[in-house]
Amino acid sequence: MAGKRIAEKRVVRVGAVQIAPDLDSLEGTLTRVLAALDEAAGKGAELVVFPETFVPWYPYFSFVLPPVLTGAEHLRLYENAVVVPGPVTEVVAASARRLGVVVVLGVNERDHGSLYNTQLVFDADGTLALKRRKLTPTFHERMIWGQGDGAGLKVVDTRVGRVGALACWEHYNPLARYALMAQHEEIHVAQFPGSLVGPIFAEQIEVTIRHHALESGCFVVNSTGWLTDEQIARISPEEKLRRALTGGCMTAIISPEGSHVVPPLTSGEGILIADLDMALITKRKRMMDSVGHYARPELLSLHLDNRPAVPMNLATQQAAPSFTSYGSATDETDGSGNRSPADADRAPDQRVAVLRGAAG
């Protein structure tokens, strides 16, 4: 079977979405996600990628406001954040299943009293193949999100191939990238916020994703967000700070040879569509396989602790707590399989009916 797969000629059509969120509500942003999914699938996309923490929105406010002034917006982000699994994931999973597409979505995940920068990979049958959290939030983000763990550094098999994902400046962590390379990712998904820092950020993104494609010998599908002028004015009360919320957009699709498959999208909204010739992976790795014939594991190797980080381990005679495939402890139960009252705040909203209705 392995030899047959290598001999197969596979072409995967992918879509990278550059889009603005709805800064007023989770429901509004989710509606935009579903519409973009329909549009991309209508163009034949089998994999659709959205920007970093796109749902409900990236916390741009934390980049331009001093911490003492961010309380109200931070709490509003909590109120609109995504519980995983929950109503939002049900809606997206239903859309992925209906359209038969693999979806990679960035969300602000709420887990009890903390928020996380989380990447979700839905397979084409609607199953949640991966939930991973950004390992180290960057600069201003550390006031917003908690840290992820090694359990999320995982490449998953999907209908379009082996998919790995990292968010933003995680791409500056060579060992994190190598962990995915060593698992033989075929399509690497990168996500950045967009509309941030200025044009130099777009240049840095391009260098980073093109280098990873070359080093890993894989395709890279990168999606960045977008803000309208009206949204920028709303986020920043000071005109001179609004420049920090422009530029930084580099939605792009890169081949294993480090070149753009299609011209990148650096401003405005849109969806890049490209066909990936998977034979290019072998063509690149024939020359340089960084985790195979070009590696020297007896000299240099990576140690990865892929155990989930949990705040408490119970040393009792009872069975140890089980863990989900997403890398977090399962909810405590009363022994009958029912959730305990302590888990009630994992579903703090009353949006189930509204969000399920959106899936229709």
UniProtKB/TrEMBL annotation:
Keyword Hydrolase: yes
Keywords: Hydrolase
Keyword Translocase included in the entry's annotation: no
Molecular function as annotated in GO: aliphatic nitrilase activity
Pfam families named among the record's database cross-references: CN_hydrolase
Enzyme Commission number(s): 3.5.5.7
Region (Disordered): 321-360
Family, as annotated: Belongs to the carbon-nitrogen hydrolase superfamily. Nitrilase family.
Chain ranges of the CN hydrolase domain: 12-278
Domain of life: Bacteria
Segments of skewed composition (Polar residues): 321-339
Protein name according to UniProt: Aliphatic nitrilase
InterPro entries reported in the protein's UniProt record: C-N_Hydrolase, C-N_Hydrolase_sf, Nitrilase, Nitrilase/CN_hydratase_CS, Nitrilases_CHs
